[in-house]
Amino acid sequence: MAELQEVQITEEKPLLPGQIPEAAKEAELAARILLDQGQTHSVETPYGSVTFTVFGTPKPKRPAIFTYHDVGLNYKSCFQPLFQFGDMQEIIQNFVRVHVDAPGMEEGAPVFPLGYQYPSLDQLADMIPCILQYLNFSTIIGVGVGAGAYILSRYALTHPDTVEGLVLINIDPNAKGWMDWAAHKLTGLTSSIPEMILGHLFSQEELSGNSELIQKYRNIVTHAPNLENIELYWNSYNNRRDLNFERGGEITLKCPVMLVVGDQAPHEDAVVECNSKLDPTQTSFLKMADSGGQPQLTQPGKLTEAFKYFLQGMGYMASSCMTRLSRSRTASLTSAASIDGNRSRSRTLSQSSESGTIPSGPPGHTMEVSC
């Protein structure tokens, strides 16, 4: 047996204090890239599996931004234009984000078997605690569109201590009435499921105009490989229960809320009615001109600025500089006197066409905005 020889290895380039080995640098870079791309997880719940994607790392004493998309979309097609917008980067650097895909809506999702019982919107809301428990997150700021706005509102009613704020785009808190059902059934006789969903997402003016954006989303919905799953989500949305909001009553959202809808959007009347039912000292109402049915897609800059203001009102990002609104807009502000010292001011803000900035101020005020 050959005799073992002792070999002494001399490090040619000793590390200086604080110097990171190349392998460690590469690992750190890979970790950052992974965070930028998001980490996708699935968790089992009493109502089936749900998939969600996490971006960033949790920040001490800060809630997670938690999104839920509308029917016919997934988190990417619903929220990417907003969260990839340049001015939004200042916000997302300060919060961890969780983007939920409703069951069967994630990319590459298999089609559910015939006869599968899709969860109701109430049950989809009941899946959220499983996600937060899995991630060990205690509080959220919810951002929801359409069906997603309803789901986050239902969750906030049952778990108010875990919701610090809500941004609700195109929310319809009402169950369908008999007239709505009759109209829905008649539409179903002459229109396909994709056409009905597109009519839910966009205004008739937008669909008739057939812009590049409309063509893109018509293609997404019409040629979706999981169209059967989308139809199940659509049916759950149309079978939603009334949230029974009542101003001054027991059933109401206890956190700050920003309601958002586009001018002439399909859900404009529903959002206006929702605003009338919520606590005016906690609710901001943003009506956006020239934004159509999906303001997070068509006006991400305006919505980002409003979101910054909303966060500042909650006590976050106090040092953030608000961006200037476009020079082609005018802003007029009418303020009423404050009701009491620390409570909110009732405020109506109307923005139509020239430069101005959305003013910062204390949380808890009613704000009606056309911008």
Key terms:
14 helices; 11 strands; 9-stranded mixed sheet; alpha/beta; 371 residues; two-stranded antiparallel ribbon; globular; NDRG
What does this structure look like?
By secondary structure, this protein is of the alpha/beta class. Helices cover 36% and strands 17% of the residues. The chain has 14 helices and eleven strands. The protein has helices at residues 22-37, 75-83, 89-92, 121-126, 128-135, 147-158, 178-190, 193-201, 204-209, 212-222, 227-238, 268-277, 295-298, 300-313, and strands at residues 39-45, 48-55, 64-68, 97-101, 140-145, 163-169, 257-262, 283-288, 331-335, 347-351, 368-370. The strands form two sheets. It has a nine-stranded mixed sheet, sandwiched between helices. Strand 5, helix 6 (147-158) and strand 6 (163-169) form a beta-alpha-beta unit. It is globular and about 50 Å long. It is found in: Cell projection, Growth cone; Cytoplasm. Keywords: Cytoplasm, Developmental protein, Differentiation, Neurogenesis, Wnt signaling pathway. Belongs to the NDRG family. Its main location: other.
